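Continuing from the previous page...

OK, I double-checked the sequence for Ribulose-5-phosphate reductase against my notes and this is the correct one:
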Amino acid sequence: MLNCVYRLVSPRTIEPVQVDVAVGPEDVVVRPTHLSICNADQRYFQGRRSARAMAKKLPMALIHEGIGRVAWSADGVFEPGQRVVMLPNNPVETDDVIKENYLRSSQFCGSGYDGFMQELVVLPASRVIALPDSISDEVAAFTELVSVAVHAVSRFGEIAHVRRETVGVWGDGNVGFIVSLVLRSMYPNMNIVVFGRNAYKLADFTFVDQTFLTTDAAHAPLIDHAFECCGGDGAASAIGQIIDTIKPEGTISLMGVSENPVPVNTRMVLEKGLRMFGSSRSGRLDFERTLQLYREHPQIASYLESLVGSVNDVASIRDIAHAFDADARKPMGKTIMRWNM
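Thanks. Re-ran it with the corrected sequence; updated C-alpha cells here:
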C-alpha cells in the first residue's frame, strides 16, 4: 500500500515521503483524524534534543498521541469508519516480569519509528482500541497521555505501602493535572495536595483537597507518598522538596522527563528509607483501564476538556508548523491538530 508519511528531517523542517507499506493479515489501517502534540514532539521539532539524539532519530514522523477512523481491518474486528485510539507502543516480544513499555526491544511510534503524522497508519490489531462515544475527539486525542498517568498510578498501587492518607503531586502542568485527576478517581478518599509555581494554574485543580505554591511548601502537611511531574529544570528542586516533605518509608514516583542528570539528596533518601521508581509510557492494559475510567467516571472527561487548548485544522505542512508554534506559546493545555492530510 502506498502511503504518505510526513517526516521531520531537521529542526522545523518536515518533508512528505511516499512509502510502500506492507499490510499483514492481522493489521488494521487507520486514517488519523485528531493528533495531539506532546512536549517530546516539540523538543524534536524545535531541535531541543541533543545533536546525537537528533542524528540518531531523524528522519522520523512525529506524534504518538492520536485517534482516527478505521479505513480497513483484515480480521473484521473493526468496522470501517469506527473511531479508535492508536497505541504507539508496539512490543515484539513478551516477558513474564517486564511490562511491554519497558522492554528495550519494543518499537515506539514517534521515537525511533514513524509516528502518526501519516496519511494512513498501519498497526497490528492489538495496537488499536475502539473509543466510547461519550468522549469528544479533542479529549480522546490525548488518551495516550492519560494512559501514562493511569500506568504510573497503577504502579503506585503495586509499590507504595498501604498508608496512603495524604499524597503530594509536584507539578501544575498537564501531567500534574492528569495524575491528580486519576488519583482522585482511583482513590476517592485520599487527601491529595498539589504543589506548583503558578497560582493561576493551581486554581484549575478544583478536584483536589489542597494546593500550595512551592514557595509556601513549609506550611503544607507532611505526605505519605509523592508524584514528581515536573521534569526539566524544575525536577531537581521538586525532588529535593519532596524528600524534605515526605514521611519515612514513603514512595516517590518520578514522571518528569529531564534532558540532563538530576542531583538527588541520597543521604536523606537513605535516612528516611524512601523508595523511588520511574514510570514512562504505557501498554495496552493501561489504555484499557483508561477507557474503563472514562466509562465509570464521566466527570473525568469534563475536567479533561479544560485542558484542550488550541485546536488547529491541518491540511498542509505550513499548517503543521503553525500548530507546533501555537503549542510552543501556550502556558498550559494540549494542542490538537484536526488532521486533514
